[in-house]
Amino acid sequence: MTAGLKTIISLSFVLAIGFLLVILSCALFHQYLPLLVVATYVLAPLPNWICGRCANPDDFVESSGNAVVDFGRFCTGFLVLMGVALPVLLAHSAIIRWDACVMSIIGGGLIYGTIIAFSMFFEEEQEF
Amino acid sequence: MSEERLWKFRKPEWMNSATARSAGVYGAGALFSLAFFTLLDAAVWSHSSRNGSNIHINFIDWLPLIFSSLGMLIINSIEKTRLSADSFSYSGSGVAWKARVVLFLGFASLAGGMAGGVTVLVLKYVVPQAPWPTVYMGIANVVSNGLVMLSSVVLWISQNMEDEYSYNLAL
């Protein structure tokens, strides 16, 4: 119980640091486009989750169920890389500065890591 | 199954695991994202202050990527098991042929996208002898089409992996 509480507290700290980095990368340079990274990473696990609910991956007779799961994974992979590619794109076109780009990538990575760790945590709880 | 093997080298064992399969699908999505954002980066860059030339990216530059993505969509929408169906098998007459024709269209579209990328690079950037930072836009076009091709290869391989995996489980 205490271990779970510690996990929740440390994860929320990491999430707060991630948001801090992303918001700082926007507010320091008065260019609020890096906030899109947060939206991307929040949306990233969503296709995987929806398609996982839609299909039963253990059903080997009906192979179309696997295709839906694969489509969800494809979309998740797309969105995860989008979170890294978007700041680099903005920095390369001189819309934001390179340090803002690095800050938003690190912050986005922390946010996404928190989301992944949280979902793994809850999955483990559901098994019992 | 092992008697029907065509190649001398067998597939390594780790390729049949579920983890490798899902990693392949994630990787294919990431590669496709990289392709899309390479071209989007060139498009945004061409309209930013960094671009000092008169050459800009318009719809023509996007056309090869559209064709490549269409080809990738077609190739990976085909049910792979229908391809190996012989004409005398239970799958009915002509299903394998239909699958092969549609697959051919998909591959043609993919290769056409790649060729279109090279064409845009040559006709729009190399022939007018554009200087280096401008040529980047054409190179990004070719790179993004190549990445779409790589992505569809990875997706194809990981989907074939899935068949082997489910076959092993079905036994």
From TrEMBL, chain A:
Q: Which parts pass through the membrane?
A: 12-33, 71-90, 102-122
* Location(s), subcellular: Membrane
Q: Keyword Glycoprotein on this protein?
A: no
Which keywords accompany this UniProt record? Membrane, Transmembrane, Transmembrane helix
Q: How does it sit in the membrane?
A: Multi-pass membrane protein
- One short Pfam family name for this protein? Vps55
Gene Ontology cellular-component terms for this entry are:
late endosome; Vps55/Vps68 complex
Q: Name one GO biological process term.
A: late endosome to vacuole transport via multivesicular body sorting pathway
Q: Does the keyword Membrane apply?
A: yes
What InterPro entries has UniProt attached to this entry?
Vps55/LEPROT (IPR007262)
The UniProt family comment states:
Belongs to the OB-RGRP/VPS55 family.
Q: Which PANTHER family match?
A: LEPTIN RECEPTOR-RELATED, RH04491P
Protein name stated in the entry:
Vacuolar protein sorting 55
The species is Mollisia scopiformis (Conifer needle endophyte fungus)
From TrEMBL, chain B:
A Gene Ontology biological process in which this protein takes part is: late endosome to vacuole transport via multivesicular body sorting pathway
Membrane-spanning residues: 20-39, 59-78, 99-123, 135-157
Keywords from UniProt, A to Z, are: Membrane, Transmembrane, Transmembrane helix
| Gene Ontology CC terms | fungal-type vacuole membrane; Vps55/Vps68 complex
For this protein, the record's Pfam families field holds: UPF0220
Q: Where in the cell is it found?
A: Membrane
- Reply yes or no: does the keyword tRNA-binding apply: no
Q: How does it sit in the bilayer?
A: Multi-pass membrane protein
Determine if rRNA processing is one of this entry's keywords.
no
Family from the record: Belongs to the UPF0220 family.
Name of the protein: UPF0220-domain-containing protein
Q: Which organism is it from?
A: Mollisia scopiformis (Conifer needle endophyte fungus)
